[in-house]
Amino acid sequence: EEAPIDEGSLHMASGEGNEDFFGVESSSSTSISTASTPSLVPRPNLAPDISRMIIPSTIDPHALKISYNAPVDTLYALVEGPTKETGRPIGSSRYNRNHHTGQVEDLAINQYTFHEQYHQFNSFGTLGDMPRRKKTVNISLPGMSDYALADEDDEDESKPVGGEGDDSDDDDDGNAEEEAGGSSSSTSSRSASKRRRREHNTPGTDTFQGPWAASEAEEKLVAEIDLVQKANKKAFESVEKVKKGHYTTQEEREAKEEEELRQRMQDKGRTIWHAQKDRARDYQGRSWLVPPSELKVVDHGAFIPKMWIHTWSGHTKGVNAVRLFPTYGHLLLSAGLDGAVKIWDVYNKRKVLRTYLAHTKGVRDITFTGTGRHFLSGGFDKVVRLWDTETGQIVQSFANGRAIPYVLKFYPQQGANAGTDGYNEFLSGWSDKRIVQYDIRTPDAFVQEYTEHLGAVNTITFVDDNRRFVSSSDDKSLRVWEYGIPVTIKLLSEPHMHSMPSVAVHPNNKYVICQSLDNQILVYKTAGFSLNKKKRFAGHTSAGYACQLGFSPDGRYVISGDGEGRLWVWDWKTSRPFKTIKAHDRACVGAVWHPIETSKIVTCGWDSAIKLWD
């Protein structure tokens, strides 16, 4: 049993007491005399007088714990002073962060202020406070004299911006407010802080644009900044053109382009015969264009090629298009991005026979007449040329201002003029959204013009016994025309449609297939020109490439290249891929089925190769 505590044995030393944290008074020196009893701690005061306590207003950020109940304002107060003795900034500490990367501060900026700083940085290369209302802005640009912007209502146009003589409208407003008296001082100060409304932007009127419409000063400043940007760009372009020695004005540029186009039109070109001279005529005096006697037009089924048997090499750049000689296919015409047009022998030694040189840039499209004795070529040099296939001479040249010919197509029906095989008229689609109909007998003027497309014309395809034709354009639409009548008889334009840079007609003339740039081939009926939703061909990658389409002579198969250099073959009846061949290292943009030997396909690509498959 514990001994009872003798209250008299507990003595406190004399002296003035000090109040501890719990409000218990204790002396600086305390002596407890106990004879035989253990030492005891005095009983704490559980209800201290907090009015006499001193609670600190800040908390040490390095303290791990506190022994008192601090107010909420003190707990969430900002840290005062450096966090450590090293003097590192507050943001680098783990304290006082509202984001895992540091302290994030809210910042609000209106749209006008953002555009003001954006245009200022693009114009002058620096950011800062610009004068909101300036009298005159003198800007020194390379290659031009000082460019001055001044208000029409300014009395003194020679005052610099931000100088001592610049009296802004804000100062004038302030003087007016002082003269008005003290009664309107509060109203004037509020109105000075707000944006001034436009003169006609009054609520309740027809010209009211809302409370957040830009003020006259804001619109004026934005217009001046845009004007400075245009002047800066124009001056920079002028300096660059002068350095290159090309031209100095837009008029000189157009005049130079017209002169260059006129010179290209007058260029007669040149041709190179690669075969032996005795190959130009046989022992009976027949031209080298005459097909071999063993080729006979026979209707029989088509077969899928299994192997690559030959490569024609001669172009220094990619090959954009290939066309087989009409009916027999014993000759092959190719258009290269190197500006050369070549004709190759499909049989015998399979060598190049003739090269046609006249285009100064890449050739976009080529097309034969019905007999093959003439062909058209259109290039990125903005000139269309009619060639004599046998001699290599240029018969006519055509141009359409500064537009580029994208597609060429002879009218399939023969005329009465035997000098050009009877194929006198042709259509050409241009980059300026027009389809122009020319007559070879009158090269100085066009016959008809079709101008309803909203983008560059990509394809022209004759249907319905050549009485109508279908055209596709970059405006993602198909238009059906009566030949010779420049009015659209049907427009196919849906939100889901994409641009269609290649079109082909089925051998039975009942369907038209279109290469859509969303990686699928769509089928349209020629009767009524409606979309066949049950039949589509997919699997290849054609987005961004004008890959040529084609049919087998019997119409059983559909062929197309793709952007990955593959040749695709689909079954027309089931719409399923039948075979895929890795044909080229780069995009395969051309594929054509041989009309007589129906097991052969010719492909071309941007790897400058032309390949024969059997």
Level of helix content? 10-25%
Relative strand content: 25-35%
Net shape: elongated
Number of strands: 33
| Main β-sheet, spatial strand arrangement | 5-10-9-8-7
Mean pLDDT: 78
Number of helices: 6
Question: How large is the radius of gyration?
Answer: 44 Å
Largest sheet: 5 strands, antiparallel
Unreliable segments (pLDDT under 50, ≥5 consecutive)? Answer: 1-35, 84-88, 130-195
Termini gap:
117 Å
**Class by SSE composition:** alpha+beta
Produce the secondary structure layout.
Blueprint lengths: L17 E2 L5 E2 L45 H4 L35 H14 L11 E4 L7 E4 L18 H12 L4 H9 L22 H29 L5 H17 L3 E4 L34 E6 L5 E6 L6 E6 L3 E6 L6 E6 L5 E6 L5 E6 L3 E6 L5 E6 L5 E6 L14 E6 L4 E5 L6 E5 L6 E7 L4 E6 L4 E5 L2 E8 L9 E4 L5 E6 L3 E6 L5 E8 L10 E3 L5 E5 L4 E6 L5 E6 L5 E6 L7 E5 L3 E5 L1
Antiparallel strand pairs: 1-2, 3-4, 5-10, 6-33, 7-8, 8-9, 9-10, 11-12, 12-13, 13-14, 15-16, 16-17, 17-18, 19-20, 20-21, 21-22, 23-24, 24-25, 25-26, 27-28, 28-29, 29-30, 31-32, 32-33
Provide a short characterization of the protein structure:
With 614 residues, the protein is of the alpha+beta class. The protein contains 6 helices and 33 strands.
Give a written overview of the molecule.
The termini are far apart. This protein has a five-stranded antiparallel beta sheet, with no helix packed on it. It has a four-stranded antiparallel beta sheet with strand order 6-33-32-31, with no helix packed on it. A four-stranded antiparallel beta sheet has the order 11-12-13-14. A hairpin with a 5-residue loop joins strand 13 (383-388) and strand 14 (394-399). With 614 residues, it is α+β, with helices and mostly antiparallel strands. The chain is elongated and about 140 Å long. It is 14% helix and 29% strand.
